[in-house]
Amino acid sequence: MGASTPARSVRAIRRRSVEPGIDGFAHITESDRPGAPAVVEARTAGLDLSVWLRGNQETVDRHLYTAGAVVFRNFKVATAADFAAVAGDGGDEKLLDYVYGSTPRTKESKGVYTSTEYPPEETIPQHNEMAYARDWPLRLWFFCQLNAQGGGETPLADSRRVLERIPAAVRERFERDGIMYVRNYGGGVDLPWQQVFETDDRETVERFCAANEIELEWLPDGGLRTRQICQAVVEHPRTHEVAWFNQAHLFHTSSLPAAVREDLLATFSPEQLPRNALYGDGTVIEDEAFTEIRAAFEAETVATPWQTGDVMLVDNILMSHGRNPYQGPRKVLVAMSGAWSALQEAGR
Predict the structure, then answer these.
(1) If I label 156, which of 35, 177, 313, 315 is the partner at 20 to 30 A Cα–Cα?
(2) pLDDT tens string 251-287
(3) Which three-class secondary structure state does DSSP give residue 24?
């Protein structure tokens, strides 16, 4: 939903050496520009990334919590199976399923999916994965199995700096009231509930919604409507920094092209819209608030070109992500790990 100005490239950004990897097998650099990922490059092609990660997790985490994202380049990662092994080894949590998702994607294998399958000419705006929910992955893994002929970057924006840019009056209202997400599934407009919840069993859906404090309403035509009040900001569990963390700007009708928005509002009542975002008390969010929010994202967005074989680890709280339009074939896979709910239950 929606479009944004393509992010600026970081090709010309000067990088500075930070430290060598284990036994000099890899070299780590960080950019001087906030929003650009740190880069770990294998000195010898064919180095096993899973093995390297197991010996260097503390180093990777240190750079991840500072830069927000880390790119691994020139390692031996060629297939979805290779990628799954890397993502499964790169942390202490198993890979997560994409249940209660909001975008179309294909499951390649357990825990590995295609990135969002929107037409290549469309821009996917900045967002933190599943920030429209109360439970989300702490880490995202991307694998560029095939780079596009042009464009197709996965731009990033530092969510800490995005928060700082949003005017205090806007920020404080969101922080105080939270955000109510209203979703109507299917109807030929949005994803069917069977795809979103990865089941066709109503009782399974009801159990999931009850466990996640999602208000559920089965509709006479067999459709489903849900409402959930969620956070606008989150404190990072490791760095204790506060970050802007929601998807109100994507669910709100102001994200749509004017003609599409006009047609939807003429066809559906506010309660029947495929997606909508309200303040947590149920009142309408002003378009002007989203003008400020989108400006903050745009100011912080940085795009780093992919190379085929790259793997990128993103801290899902510290960094939002999107996708630039592209030309030619492109295949980027994604995996998610480290559930927020599991962290809270562990009391960490």
Answers:
(1) 177
(2) 999 988 888 888 888 888 888 898 999 999 999 999 9
(3) helix
Q: Which domain holds residue 210?
A: 162-295
- Same domain, yes or no: 309 and 283: no
Q: Is the dihedral of CA 270, 276, 281, 285 positive or negative?
A: negative
Residues 115 and 213 in one domain: no
Report yes or no on 347 lying in a domain: no
Identify the pLDDT of residue 102.
63
Phi, psi of 151 (to 5 degrees): 70, -155
Q: Are 68 and 79 in contact (CB under 8 A)?
A: no
| Inside any domain, residue 1 | no
Would you say 274 and 183 are in contact if contact means Cβ atoms under 8 Å apart? yes
7 domain residue, yes or no: no
Rg of the chain, C-alpha, whole Å: 20
The pLDDT score that the predictor gives to residue 7 is 47
* C-alpha–C-alpha distance, residues 183 and 40, integer Å: 40
pLDDT of residue 347: 62
Q: Is residue 348 part of a domain?
A: no
pLDDT of residue 305: 96
- Within 10 Å of residue 183's Cβ, how many Cβ atoms? 22
pLDDT of 5 reads 42
Within 10 Å of residue 41's Cβ, how many Cβ atoms? 15
Under-70 pLDDT residues of the chain = 1-23, 89-93, 100-105, 188, 345-348
Are the beta carbons of 43 and 20 closer than 8 angstroms?
A: no
Q: Are 169 and 150 members of one domain?
A: no
Q: How many beta carbons lie within 10 A of that of residue 60, not counting itself?
A: 20
CA proximity to 142, closest of 337, 340, 338: 337
What gap in Å lies between CA 306 and CA 154, rounded to an integer? 8
Domain of residue 260, CATH code: 3.60.130.10
